[in-house]
Amino acid sequence: MTVPFLLAPMAELSHRPLRELIEGFSGPGSGCDEYFTEMISAGPLLGGGPFESWYMDAGPCPERVVYQLVGSDPEQIVRAAILLDSRECLGIDINMGCAAPAIRRTGAGVAWMASIDKAGSLIARVRQVVKKRLSVKLRIGFEDDFDYLLNFCRRLEGEGVELVTLHPRTAGEKFKRSPRWDYVTALRRELHIPVAGNGDIASAADLLHRADMGGPVMVGRAAVRHPWIFAQARSAQAQGMALGARIDLEETALRFLELLTRYQPPEFHISRALRFFNYFCDNLKWAHYVKTLLNREKTPGGIERALRGYFGEHPEERYTKY
Ligand SMILES: Cc1cc2nc3c(=O)[nH]c(=O)nc-3n(C[C@H](O)[C@H](O)[C@H](O)COP(=O)(O)O)c2cc1C
Fold first, then answer.
1. Residue-level pLDDT at 26
2. Distances (CA, A) of 63 to 11, 59, 121, 291
3. Best of 10, 13, 218 to mutate for ligand 1, by most ligand atoms within 8 A of CB?
4. Closest alpha carbon to 283 in 232, 206, 221, 236
5. HEC profile for 141-152?
6. Which residues of the chain carry a pLDDT beneath 70?
7. What is the pLDDT of residue 243?
């Protein structure tokens, strides 16, 4: 059974240029099945902020895009959900997992996990207005308490949520602590809806290993480091082994820059380029050095020159195999 592969919502990373890049490695139906967007704040979206049209750009495959909403005010979340649901997309996801202090403090993200009743009432209201697939992304909660997580998810399921994604760490845990994938398995056993698992997948082999557990799998940072990861895993599934395709890292890096300037507003170019290359440069032997070079640059043109200069000096770094 092939299980769906999902791109994780990641602020400043899960946008159209990354989707275009990932799609470029994939044949039809052979790459990433669902693209979650970076979280979109309900309030600014409704206020018609200057950048909201960029956040809502679901290209190049809107039918596989899931808009992720973040917010603390139920009224705003409901109205924002109506707005996004009216666009071409696969579904709407509510962020109940983000543990960044700036989000949590406002009562958004993982703060929703503090009260089953509040979260349940929010979902009941959102369910009434969302016609497309409704999903929730969450963590274990504030404590390492599986029973609480299960009750929380049962309530979501009862209110009409059709998919949950579990990033199995508690609200206070950073990436250092290993994710508890056994909680994903246990939750799948108890719920009637699909449970996507997410956390620390580093390679196509890891992705296939998690896919063998029998449910949707979501990949975040590794899909920025290796935008070919979904295509690689699918071809391995189809051929029964990993293909020895050659990836041109210089060409991939420059293609990303080109997509970024084509599909994002100038105000976003530098911050988003640096976010992306912070992960992508891990493919290179002198990653730290390249990141330092890029961090000095103030324009996409400067970043392009720095990348070309690096690959010019280190031609042996240009190709990687998967
Ligand atoms: C830079 C960055 C931004 C993120 N932004 C979001 C977000 O907007 N919404 C969300 O639900 N999770 C967000 N996350 C969490 C990821 O979706 C994912 O749960 C986490 O990175 C673990 O998956 P991974 O190990 O495959 O990266 C973010 C993570 C990172 C590293």
1. 87
2. 21, 9, 28, 35
3. 10
4. 221
5. ECCCCHHHHHHH
6. 1, 28-29, 240-244
7. 56
pTM of the full structure: 0.98
Amino acid at 170: T
Q: Tell me the C-alpha distance between 230 and 210, whole Å.
A: 13
Contacts of 294 (CB under 8 A, 6+ apart): 273, 274, 277, 281, 303, 306, 307
- Which DSSP string do the residues of 121-172 spell out, in sequence order? HHHHHHHHH--SEEEEEE-SBSSS-HHHHHHHHHHHHHTT--EEEE--SBTT
Q: List, chain by chain if needed, residues with CB within 6 Å of any ligand 1 atom.
A: 8-11, 13, 38-39, 68, 95, 97-98, 137, 167, 198-201, 219-222
Query: Ligand 1 centre from 115 Cα, in Å?
Result: 22
Whole-number pLDDT of residue 49:
87
Question: What does the pLDDT read at residue 30?
Answer: 75
